Fold this protein.
Amino acid sequence: MINKIVQDMAEAMAGIKDGSVVLLGGFGAVGQPNALIDGLIEQGAKDLTVACNNAGVGHVGLARLMELGRVAKIVCSFPRSSDPVVFETLYRAGEIELEIVPQGTLAERMRAAGAGVPAFFTATGVGTKMAIGKEHREIDGRIYILEQALHGDVGLVEAWEADRWGNLTYRLAGRNFNPIVAMASRLTIVQAQHLRELGEIDPDHVVTPGIFVDRVLHVPYGDPSGF
Amino acid sequence: MSDTAVAAFKPFSRVQMARRAAADIPEGWYVNLGIGIPTAIADHVPMDREVIFHSENGVLGVGPAPDKDKIEPWLINAGKQYVTLRAGGSLCHHADSFSMIRGGHLDLCVLGAFQVADNGDIANWATSENDTAPAVGGAMDLAAGAKRLWVLMEHTTKDGTPKLVTKCSYPLTAQSCVKRVYTNLATIDVTERGFVVLDIAPGLSFEDLQARTEAKLHLSG
């Protein structure tokens, strides 16, 4: 019997190695796998590369992970937030590496990784700092730059519903990066608000099919708050 | 420019700028509004004119802000403000949402900017080559991907430096993509001739406008 549902956080986080590339779902506080990020803090892996849209708020979650010196590099589109104090302090001190990626390129790099596409051409960033050092090609009269797929060793995802095969649904804007993080990661760990029996989620409503998911932890925390 | 000219003219307010841009958006367009002043454009499109607003975080069919007692905590826009979803609205993941942008499906994007050049270049994400932790978000995708890009911004900086220039001095967001600029002093098309003035704030002459603009302005027609 396939059962991807794990019983506790230690089981969810087992085996995450130092130096891992960790992809995070979430946009603002919505759809952010906060419990799993806290679990990663507890688990202890270090020298991490973290890819997600923002670079943490206040002193909790991702910001806390950075504050503890566990993140060597952050790949994101928007390192500012309402309170990016931890990131800015580390960045100014030269203690964290930053790779800025246009938001759509970040998303597409994850989808490409999940789809077995090693790199792709895009018009986004042509003629800007983002294009420096990248291969350029003219296709049908327009210039494009080559961007590489972004694989995760680990992906942390927040879902609304999950079953023991790892089929997932999301709630409203909580979907955001989560489905592509699930696709792009070798070990995809999900925190789900609701556990369902097999067959209980209408097959037409499954957004992330279980093939992209490895572990599911039940975390019924309620509604997101604060950005 | 003389002191009397400065005293006499009346710049467009932000509400007037948003209303002016809203009036130019026809029914049926799919539109992304950038964070800041452009977001206010949505408030000036009449509800009976069906314009569909897109937000980068996978929301298509964004409606007005909710009443305080009707906030849906799972529904925000790219500016991380609570929003509503219109009947007919839909959700998608980030790669699909940016496919709408990068695949050329959006009819219009309206962004704020630091500078716009008369060849359509836009600089709106960093104010120096060495900006501490520059934040680009979706601006480069939107500028390069939407069918047309309009800019809504002040005509000059607070100290009077022109923002409509011959060449952007700030790091570029995208090349040759701005089609129209709405400022507090004028509405200006970006054409093969360069900047073409469509209308000017009351009491301001074309010469006064030119004095506040680095690049050459052309009269329409």
Summary: The radius of gyration of chain A is 18 Å.
